[in-house]
Amino acid sequence: RRLVAEVPDNACAHHQLAQMYLGRGDVAAAVAHAGQARRISPSDLPYALTACDALCAARQVDEATAVIRECMTRVAECDVQDLLRLGELAETLGRPEDARAAYNLARARAPAQHDALLRRGGSHFARGDVTAAAHDFRRAWRLAPENRQIMMSLVSALARLPTTTSDVRLERELAVCLADERLDPNHLRAIASRQVLRKPGIRRLVE
Known about the structure:
This protein is mostly helical. It has helices at 2-6, 11-24, 27-40, 45-57, 61-73, 80-92, 96-109, 115-126, 130-143, 148-158, 167-178, 185-196, 200-206. α2 runs antiparallel to α3 and α2 (11-24) runs parallel beside α4 (45-57).
């Protein structure tokens, strides 16, 4: 703070203060200092990312969305974690299209990683599109078959697929999930049994 008082045009100092105030929960001060850092040095991506955090914390939806979209246009400067974070922030703002756009960029940047698929699937699932969610969770599972969170997400999505979905495919996929000894079978069966007991073949798997 002393440095800001002595050199008010020091963008780095404003940025550090914004992060400090965010950590303390002083959202208004964080927004003010993040804005100052951006005004002084608009080309610095870290300052824009911190501004996203501050504006989201302040629930300034339109302003935060604008900065998120700006950051996504600078994808070459973002790493995968930056893009995933932008997606998460967009989700908290109720902007699922922007969230999925960020996850798509992260997926393009690191196609061998499962994180973007898992989060994009979660976005679909949260909005009731279980078919798209199951598709993303399947692809994530192929990349990280040992990942418990992906397995649980896939089972949850499979268990909620509509009755038009092939019972044979569901039986096969659920059987693989339910047989995985690294997971809690009771928990998995509880999830799987909620929506699929109407399917006789699948009922046999969860009884």
